[in-house]
Design goal:
This protein is mainly β and 979 residues long. The chain contains ten helices and 51 strands. The strands form seven sheets. The chain has a 22-stranded antiparallel β-barrel. Strands 3-2-5-6-9 form a five-stranded mixed beta sheet. Strands 10-15-16-13-14 form a five-stranded mixed beta sheet. The longest helix is centred in the first third of the chain and has 11 residues.
Length: 979
Amino acid sequence: MAISNSKRRVLTRGISATAMAAATLLAGGAVMLPTLASAQVSTASLSGQVTGADGNAAAGAQVTARSIATNQTFRAVSDANGGYALNGLRPGEYEVTATAGTETVSQNIVVGVGEAASLDLAVGGAAATAPTEGSQIVVTGTRLRETRTSEVATNVSTTQIERLPQTDRNFLAFAALAPGVRYNDSETDKGITSGASTASQVNVFIDGVSLKNQLREGGIAGQQNSRGNPFGQLAVQEFRVLTQNYKAEYEQAGAAIVTAITKSGTNEFHGEIFGQYTDKSLSEKSYLDKRNNRAEPAFERKQYGAALGGPIIKDKLFFFGAYEGNDQDRAFNVVAGGTPALRAAASASLGRDISTLEGAFVSPFRSDFYFGKLTLTPDDRQTFDLSFSRRDESDIQGFGNQTSYEAAENKKNRVDTYQFKWAYNGSNFVNEFNASYLNYTFNPTSLHPELPQYEYAGVIIAGGKDSTRRETQNSYTFRNDFTYSGIAGHVFKAGVRVQVTDITFDNQAYVQPHYTFVSDPGNNLSFAFPSEARLGLGNSLIQASNTQVGVYVQDDWNLTPRLQLNLGVRWDYETNGFNNEYVTPASAAAALRSLPKTYYFDPENYITDGHDRKPFTGAFAPRVGFSYDLNGDRSTVIFGGWGRYYDRNNFNNTVDELSRVLNPIGVFRFSTDGSPRSGLPTVAWNPSYLTREGLIALRASAAGAGLPELFAVKNDAKPPVNDQFSLGVRQRIGVFQASITGSYQRGRNGYTNLFATRQNNGLGNCCNTSTVVPYGYANVLIGYDGLDTRYKALFVTLDKNYTKSSGWGLNIAYTLSKAEQNGNDLFSLDGITPDAYGWRARPGDERHRVVISGMVDLPLGFSFSTVTQLGSGQAYQVTDATQGFDTGKLRITSAYPEKNCIEGLFAFCEVNLTLANRFKINGIGQVEAAVDILNAFNNKNFKDFDGFFSATDPLDPGRIGNNTITLPRRIQFRLGYKF
């Protein structure tokens, strides 16, 4: 008979999970071919084998997994080999029970998002190892380890999110715990990158909803130049970082993918409230402020929030809601550059002393995040979710260093998501339907739109910001995933995704003119007059729509009890990836045809009547992976794979072709006498041109003055694609799980812009515009899908996850890597094509990086935790003009900062520490008081080094940069209450 609940609790405390797992393994006897399970984007799976007391496979055993949170129960029946599979499990804790005849065994386990976990159950085989009054044995388990997978992935648990130190509650900061992934903890621009790819090639899924930024380079909606958080951490339960070899169900990424799940209500009411605070008085003065004798800038950050969840109808209907606020005031120093003579010349030209523009100015940031969710489980087969989130923020930034405060802008940001999700669990299949809507509005607004902007190169930028933008992305997504596990040894999965994205792009650029002043005696230029001016001349509103379709099929196939193959293919298609219905104006077509045809430029390939840009249909992405259990006990697993991953071209890359037609940007070049400069025509300077009206009058009176640039998109451009290879081994070493993985990635088809007007029939210096000026254009830039990257890496991890019973956890990730690229990013104008640059270390490449995170319970309710990051230093771009500036002579190279941390071993060191105490109040809740010491050893971690040298201007070593990556040491206090 089954034991009582009270005896079950005693037995749970009395049997160690390790001993029970060993007993189960010994009782398993011969291993038969198991049934597989396949994890979903936002769920998990569990599979294994049921054996009887005699060690033989238990066919027809009833296997259930009961959610501890909601009592929803998932069911399966073992096949002839004793194999079972439970798919579509919501991440969390489950009581897994197997019953064969009159014998029953149970184990409490935790499964993580995206994991395909394994659990073998021996029914009755270990009854003698524990004092029981019946045939049921209950074991309290911990989080299962995922070993038999070909994916290179890292799961971040709720405990890690809550306990590990971090600066400002951005859950993406913990993505750095995954090897090969970097978190950019900038004060003005937070996001993640991986491999040799840009931030635009990552993707983040929240409950299966993609937050992909379709507009710009940030990769994640709302993260373009933002210091905000993509999603409120209080609402995030856990997440998974897939560095490489993710399966065919994942789309629109050529680099890392983060898939997170939100918290849900349960059968018990749970609530939380928190606040955390730090300010200038709790921070060290920065090294650069001390060195340059500057006042310590103002700094204050307050974060606060609350959450509540629970049942509306027990076992049926649940709710969860959360709010987070983030208020920051961070000052930045404005410091003019240049020599005293140049500063004086800039003051004279501007008509005011530029010292009045210098000083420390506060950059206020305000963010509010709201989240609400309803979960309905009408029966054990169905789950419905309905959720809403809103992220609303304002951020005055864009100033500091040589940019004055009056040139700042308010970067207003709003991201709304709505989601409906229905999951149905059949006897041997799972169907998940997801409908979602994402509204993303990016609205950077100039603080002084009435002022022209004056840029004195190398000294100061004064006047108003030269643009105000309003960019909106409305994405309507329907997705259905179907998983079938009715054939022994196979889990088939297929899915379709349709997304309609409507974009509104209103870039009011250069409503007031932007004047650039250059001191260049060799070209007879000084600060007495501008060398160039730019002025917007039209209407900037653009509206576009794009429909994306993705289909995939995959099979997780246990070829033998030890060998698992993951076979899949994905196909993606979009109707308007490259401004496909654009019609080239007659004047633009004539200008393009006037230019010489070269090996990289065919004018006819840039001219379209609206039907010449066919949607790309070749985005077939096969993905193959394997894992081999060497000993059959999951202690040593060899794994690897190859896959092709297509991303998409973001809207901003190609929008200039259309926007420069609707809103031509007039380019005016000035000189003392109107003589050509560098092959380009100029106009003799007159002070009347220092206003918008004066420039418009000049354009009307002088032929060739104020002509716009022509941008043209390649008709047969292809979307970016990344081929990835990996091979590795996972090894269980006592309580640790270790892995070593070799990685290679090759990226192609990155989009960039080139000059089409080079001299010497397109093969020389820039630029010969004589043939395009008669058609009304100042220059011609063409799109080119020739940016390439390559990445070689070795990932080493050592993990012992925290458990309450052990009281400690330790995770170490080491990355040895080399990231390279050709060309630049969106503009590759220093070489004829990207290939002319040659391969070089990509900015951000770091050969060695170590991330150590850990936590330990201490007496009296205290705990200690740390996240320590050590790096050899990120590469930065350097221009080598030692042989001159001519094409083929000028070289774009890379350099690395000097190592100044831990006796010259590293160039980047950041140690964050947390000491926390948790204590209960009257048995109804728990208080947590914590202190964080961030950058505990006050490491400087410089960036922005000298990036130019010539025969007469040597390169300054990368010893002391103009800015720092991290803030100086600071203390942060946190207080929270949970019930």
